[in-house]
Amino acid sequence: MSEDLSSIQVSNTVDARGSACPGPLLEAKKGIGKVKVGEVLEIYSNDAGTRTDIPAWSKKVGHEYLGVQEADGYDKHFVRRKK
Fold first, then answer.
1. Predicted confidence band at 29 (pLDDT cuts at 50, 70, 90)?
2. Is pTM beyond 0.85 here?
3. Where is the composition biased (Polar residues) (predicted)?
């Protein structure tokens, strides 16, 4: 990853903490529609499956998965909308 995740400009944040698979992925799908092409969606999740689900979904639908940042008891995932 070339970008420093802590300095990414986030356009929308989806908080899916406490939601089990596939909840965080469904929240991400809804959230990506609220950001413009080129903008970044941040997804909060404490479900382990999200670490594979979000990157796989991003690739499948053509968005750019920027990475994951560990926070206090949850992960922050970053996805740039590409279309």
1. very high
2. yes
3. 1-14
What is the Cα–Cα distance from 29 to 23, expressed in whole angstroms?
A: 10
Residue 8, token pair as written in the block? 């990414």
Most distant CA atoms of the chain, gap in Å? 32
> From CA 7, how far away is CA 49, in angstroms rounded?
25
- Residues annotated as part of the active site: 21
Domain 5-80 is of which CATH architecture? 2-Layer Sandwich (3.30)
pLDDT, tens only, 32-50: 999 999 999 999 999 999 9
- Phi/psi for 8 (5° steps) reads -65, 135
Beta-sheet pairing, 12-15 with 40-45: parallel
